[in-house]
Amino acid sequence: MQFDSFAAAVTMGGHGGFVWAAYAITSVVILVMIVRPVLSTRSMQDTIQREFERKQAHEKDAS
Amino acid sequence: MWRIIHQFGSPPWVYRFCDRVIPWLLPLTAVALIVGSAWGLLFAPTDYKQGDSYRIIYIHVPAAVVSLAGYYIMAFAGLVSLVWRIKLADLAMRAAAPIGAAFTAVALITGAIWGKPTWGAWWVWDARVTSMLILFFLYVGVIALFEAYDNKTIAARACAILSLVGTVNIPIIYKSVDWWYSLHQPASIKFTGSSAIDASMLYPLLGMIVAFYALFALLMMLNLKQSLTSEYAQSNWLIKRITT
Residue B46: phi, psi to the nearest 5? Predict the structure, then answer.
């Protein structure tokens, strides 16, 4: 560990604001990039699933 | 060999491949990113000249490296889509564009944050910085160009041509720090000869570069799966796969 205390790790000799901001922004970008396609894929899969069940129920009614 | 190429052109095979790889690539990437960041932030030694601000290197350089690699992948997929008219190549090209744009934006933003305490300015019209900004506009251009056409076949072709023409920017980015007098420091890592960076700083950096490559692969698969789901929503293989 390079820092003696939690406070020293936060301030980083005056550069802490820059360093932590850079890491925070990057983390947010990465999280958004992962979550967006996952949610979108899931909602499309749900639609396909519902459509399939609706069709099957329809076929059962017809027969 | 031909069988492998054939498989990569088959949407059901790629969909299944993504489904199989994502569940272990996601936690692996997360662990690698967290361990790499902690190493760079807390355990790597402080730079004797820049102090602790240099710790931004552990995201700035990997993001920049992957944003360039992403462009190769996008342009190569564009070439394949243009020449062989393979639907998947077109989807891969479009999957790579937003990821590349995001990584380029991260490299530019972290560079600006690093520039303030180091160069005294958030932004300089430096050769390296400017050519990276052009890279960002190329990525955004490919995304916007695709949206601009109603005919998606023509849109994909136009995007492929734009991304291929844009590859001239890549060697300019690499060489910008050597060709022009630049504020940006030249490459510290060299494949031949000794690197200008100590091992205690180099290893976490290499680790983060590997982690960012894994992240790129993961995001590629997530985006591909998304576009395959939307593109083949009416296809029997996909309906069967989802509903069973």
Answer: -75, 140
Q: What is the pLDDT of residues A19-63, one digit of tens each?
A: 999 999 999 999 999 999 999 999 999 999 999 999 888 888 877
Write out the two tokens for B27: 């936690």
Pairs of residues, one from chain A and one from chain B, whose beta carbons lie less than 8 Å apart: 98
Contact A48 B37 (CB under 8 A): no
State the complex-level ipTM: 0.90
Q: Is A18's Cβ below 8 Å from some Cβ in B? A: yes
**Rounded to two decimals, what is the model's pTM?**
0.92
B24-75 pLDDT per residue, tens = 999 999 999 999 999 999 988 888 888 888 899 999 999 999 999 999 999 9
Cβ within 8 Å, pair B106-A15: no
Query: What b/e readout covers B133-143, taking b as 16+ CB neighbours within 10 angstroms?
Result: eebbebbbbbe
DSSP letter at B51?
B
Distance CA B173, CA B106 (A): 16
Domain edges within chain A: 17-62
